[in-house]
Amino acid sequence: MKNWFARWFGGATRADAGTPAVPHVPAAAAQAAPAAHAQPSFDLELAFHAWLSGPVAHAGETRDALILDELAKLARQPDSAAELVPRVPAVVPQLLRSLREEGTSSTELARQVAQDVTLVAEVIREVNSPYYRPAAPVRTIEGAVMLLGQNGLRMLLARVAFRPVISAQTGRLARQAAPQLWRQSEKCALATSLAAPGCGADPFEACLAGLMQNVGLVVALRLIDQVDGAGRMPQSDAFAHAMRGSARVLSARIAQEWELPPPVGAAILQAGEADTTPLARALRVGDRLATLRVLAEAGVEEAQEAVGQLPDHERRIFDKLGES
């Protein structure tokens, strides 16, 4: 799986120039709580952890320490961590290669999309969603590609690629949490791409960062299922913050292993810091708004109250997330 993103995107992009690879992070740093930054008055990270956990949970310091130690080991072995998530449909890399080539016609793109019936259904569903608001229902692949355009098609294909990575899981906890995690990931990708221009970041790299950042959480959930056969999520505040920090490092390591554009992994690693890159700032905004959206939709009262405190430019992005 290591090189499939390299085949998609080829060489360095504009945003890659001069950007260092994801730096080494000691195991202790992987378990550190994220740096403070603007958040709602309640702890959004803890609320999200509880939402993912569902009714099956447990407390136990020994088990918690074992899980965190194993996550730290995986962060030092990203190739092993990458093996815990599925591969992508074979047609997607082919399509993304075509999108990089100048002169590729909409007819040729439509022909390639038509090779995968699942992809056809996703493209048609997407272009008929409230987000695009077509004047009349789009029923053909050719019409869908024309409406989406190349950038829209790239973002759609990225979502299609990541959906099985995040949502197709085994194990009690991973299976239970997968639908919630995918909802947050999809909304995070959209929110981050919408926030990107205002932060000076590339919207497509922002989309990738929003989709990629939860991959480490998927690995963490699968690890918990392996350690605890009943799929019980530890519930202490300390564990919740430490797992999120470890998962962020894992996501960044796997992004590097998959050879995504270097700014993507770096942004995931830096998103919890106060002074960061434009892409990391966009990701921080996108993640916060996406998490608020899914928690508010789930009826979490504190999240619903926090929505009313959003500044106007963030409220516009938040409202867009209800259409996706």
Automatic annotation (TrEMBL):
Gene3D superfamilies: Hypothetical protein af1432. Residues 85-274 form the HDOD domain. SUPFAM superfamilies: HD-domain/PDEase-like. InterPro entries: HDOD, RNase_Y/CdgJ. PROSITE patterns: HDOD. Signal peptide: none annotated. This is HDOD domain-containing protein. It comes from Massilia phyllostachyos.
